[in-house]
TrEMBL record:
One of its GO terms (molecular function) is thiolester hydrolase activity. It is found in: Cell projection, Ruffle membrane; Cytoplasm; Membrane. Keywords: Apoptosis, Cell membrane, Cell projection, Cytoplasm, Fatty acid metabolism, Hydrolase, Lipid metabolism, Membrane, Transit peptide. Its EC number is 3.1.2.2. The keyword Hydrolase applies. It comes from Maribellus comscasis. This is Acyl-coenzyme A thioesterase THEM4. Belongs to the THEM4/THEM5 thioesterase family. One of its GO terms (cellular component) is membrane. It holds the Pfam family 4HBT. CDD domains: PaaI_thioesterase (cd03443).
Length: 149
């Protein structure tokens, strides 16, 4: 599968040893997801293929499915930056309908932290950098035990 230039130097990252989340765990029938990280940056990445089972309107990926994948990829960027956290708030802007069976790419990053609050942003684009959705959220740091670590 072709990946955009920005993804070519990245290292695939397997989250399954930490979680069997419905987004990225053993379930890959509805959503096929591969995470990537860049050792030299605080960003976290995902390549995602939503299968037809995730549709809302015919042929269009359900907004909740998109939000779930953005949420987890945003949560993961805080985890990988050694700040285990849970989502307190999440806003998603949907810029154009995403057809099912179309590969898209997610990039997330920590914008800033304030005490226990971590402000995280994300975006979902296709290989031509067309924007399908972007997101921002406040994640709140919690003890490891809260998220099963
Ligand atoms: C396994 C590894 C793999 C990791 C792989 C990654 C997997 C990630 C999965 C995706 C992530 C998820 O879906 S997580 C699941 C969905 N989310 C949840 O279940 C969270 C449920 N909510 C909670 O547990 C709680 O409400 C918390 C932890 C968010 C906050 O409770 P608390 O601990 O009592 O803290 P509290 O004092 O209320 O708040 C702390 C600070 O955050 C602020 N704050 C709290 N809520 C909000 C809010 N909605 N919007 C703005 N700000 C807020 C407060 O004002 C305060 O700011 P200040 O006064 O200090 O300034």
């Amino acid at each position: 599968m072709k990946i955009p230039d920005e993804f070519q130097h990245l290292t695939p990252y397997n989250m399954n040893s930490y979680t069997d989340s419905f987004v990225s765990g053993k379930q890959q029938k509805y959503i096929e997801l591969q995470y990537y990280r860049d050792e030299n940056s605080l960003k976290f990445y995902a390549r995602v293929l939503f299968h037809v089972e995730t549709q809302g309107a015919p042929g269009i990926v359900h907004g909740g499915a998109i939000a779930s994948v953005l949420d987890e990829t945003m949560g993961a960027v805080s985890f990988l930056n050694k700040m285990p956290a849970v989502t307190a708030s999440l806003t998603v802007n949907y810029h154009r309908p995403l057809p099912v069976e179309k590969t898209v790419y997610i990039i997330t990053q920590v914008e800033k932290t304030e005490g226990r609050k971590i402000y995280i942003i994300g975006k979902m684009v296709d290989k031509n950098q067309r924007l399908f959705a972007d997101s921002k959220g406040i994640f709140v740091k919690v003890p490891n035990e809260r998220i099963g670590l």
